[in-house]
From TrEMBL:
Family, per entry: Belongs to the FPP/GGPP synthase family.
GO MF terms held by the record: (2E,6E)-farnesyl diphosphate synthase activity; dimethylallyltranstransferase activity; geranylgeranyl diphosphate synthase activity
Organism: Streptomyces clavifer
Protein name: Geranylgeranyl diphosphate synthase type I
Gene3D superfamilies: Farnesyl Diphosphate Synthase
Length: 356
């Protein structure tokens, strides 16, 4: 299997980006862990397993806690508003809690058995705990913000609640599309804007709000985050079909196994031509198949090859580049320190060249 096409032609300053991600993780993790400690047993233990802090037997672990893009963005958001990065910590933690609430529920709904190279929560602790812990993380997110007791905290909580509702809208759309033969590119982009763009948009504005920024500044930063989210999801869609399992921690052809109407699939079906028509016939037959779960690697590989032949892979890579450019353009609408602007640009570059 070949690796996913790079969605962007330049390479971000990986040293700089790594430092930004590590700073976000270092500043937010102690507060995140303290928040998780508030949960009643066994939810605290289940959440700790999900975050990679312990293994399935409850022993301390140094698991992969994810890329930590959202916390990094929240801290930079505060700096974009002229505040110290620490002002964004409650926002970083709140967004990370909502993000992980969605992962716990998504893994269960999608039947994913692996995340970050180990068994998912529902596989280890059962579906009931995955649901309860996800709900608890969402409640904690709002608690973390509102207990600040400031006007800015109330504004931040409203933005987070709106983003969460959009995220849930996107997940509902994603599930409903799995049962439809055709989905338009516009519908797919709307779904992905809700499912991924909304929370990234919130992450990159919530720190600014907590730092005292006005709504115009926060809204402009949200535009950057929204389009960055669409670029992020386009790359995710490429990795969901052509990603290396060693890097992604998921099965080969994972999105095809779940019949997801992701951007490469939708773009290929809309392209027209022999490969597009053949793909449409196969996917229509798949939707009615009773033995889909027993398909061989070769059958999934054949579907991936048709998507690529019809142009779905290249279109999605181009869309990631386009959304990246729109995100960078939005930064010009905010008066911020040039170093912060450069760091936000570097993070955007990282999002579209990642391999997991």
């Amino acid at each position: 299997m070949t690796p996913a096409n790079p969605a962007y032609d330049t390479v971000a300053d990986t040293t700089d980006v790594t430092a930004l991600l590590e700073r976000g993780r270092a500043l937010s993790t102690p507060v995140l862990r303290a928040a998780v400690d508030r949960l009643a047993p066994p939810m605290d233990t289940v959440a700790a397993y999900h975050f990679g802090w312990i293994d399935a037997q409850g022993r301390p672990a140094d698991g992969d806690g994810g890329k930590a893009v959202r916390p990094a963005l929240a801290l930079l958001s505060a700096e974009a508003a002229g505040a110290p990065p620490e002002a964004g910590i409650p926002g970083a933690v709140a967004v990370e809690l909502v993000h992980n609430f969605s992962l716990l529920h998504d893994d269960l709904m999608d039947g994913d058995e692996q995340r970050r190279h180990r068994d998912t929560v529902w596989k280890v602790h059962g579906p009931a705990q995955a649901i309860l812990v996800g709900d608890a993380l969402f409640a904690l997110a709002n608690e973390i913000l509102l207990e600040l007791g400031t006007v800015e905290a109330g504004r931040a909580a409203r933005r987070l609640t709106t983003a969460t509702r959009k995220l849930i809208d996107g997940q509902a759309q994603d599930i409903s599309y799995e049962h439809r033969e055709r989905v338009t590119v516009e519908e797919c982009l709307e779904m992905e804007g809700n499912k991924t763009g909304a929370l990234l948009a919130c992450a990159v504005s919530i720190g600014a709000v907590l730092g005292g920024a006005d709504d115009r500044t926060a809204d402009t930063l949200e535009a950057y985050g929204y389009h960055l989210g669409l670029a992020f999801q386009a790359v995710d869609d490429l990795l969901g079909i052509w990603g290396d399992p060693e890097s992604t921690g998921k099965q080969t052809w994972s999105d095809l196994r779940q019949r997801k109407k992701s951007l490469p699939v939708v773009a290929a079906l809309a392209a027209g031509g022999p490969a597009s028509a053949q793909l449409g016939e196969l996917l229509a037959a798949d939707a009615k198949s009773n033995d889909f779960d027993s398909f061989s690697e070769e059958e999934f590989a054949a579907r991936a090859a048709l998507i690529e032949e019809a142009g779905g892979r290249e279109w999605t890579a181009q869309e990631a580049r386009r959304q990246h450019a729109v995100a960078i353009e939005a930064l010009h609408g905010v008066d911020m320190p040039e170093q912060v602007r450069a760091q936000l640009t570097a993070l955007a570059d990282f999002v579209v060249v990642r391999k997991r």
